[in-house]
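**Paired protein data**
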Amino acid sequence: MAKPDSQTDDKLLKLMLAGDEEALTTLYRRRQGSVYRFALQMSGSPALAEDVTQEVFMVLMRDGGNFDPARGSLNSFLLGVARNHVLRRLERDRFYVPMDDDSENEAAASGFSATSPFKSDGPLDDVSRTEMIESVRKAVLSLPARYREVVVLCDLQEISYAEAAGVLGCAVGTVRSRLHRGRALLIEKLRPAREEDSTVADVKSERCFA
């Protein structure tokens, strides 16, 4: 029999539903990171993201038989469940807490660090990079949910438009239009931060040539 790590998600799910605990463990290790990052990027709360991740896999164990591979990947199914739980929690708890500024591990886990164009050439560059990551994080969290979720899925999770449409239960055209609007809103929200960064860079340059 093939090792669990070499099995497809669909096969692992079938084994899990048949009572194979090792298959469940493998599925969890393989997919929990994606679910956690999505919940974290949507909410800004590590605690909420952890809760949602656990809830998603509880749903998988209970209702995994409802998964239809003809309608999309298991990852899409899990993200769709995560989306529903996140939106319910945000609505219920008004849980809109941005991540701590000094939480480098959480920033890396969330995937926000990949958005920074800065290179760490010195202490001032590190500060600029951290500030940019925080600006992007806050800007994403401030987007209306319908735009935030497509930005998170397509730009941060880097899944296809078709897969995002499966997660959200809408047409690919809807994903495209919402993503276009979401990106435009992000540019507007980040413009003050970019202008401030430009001013800081000018000051640093003046100091170098003083």
User: Anything to note?
Assistant: The CA atoms of residues 76 and 167 lie 5 Å apart. The radius of gyration is 20 Å.
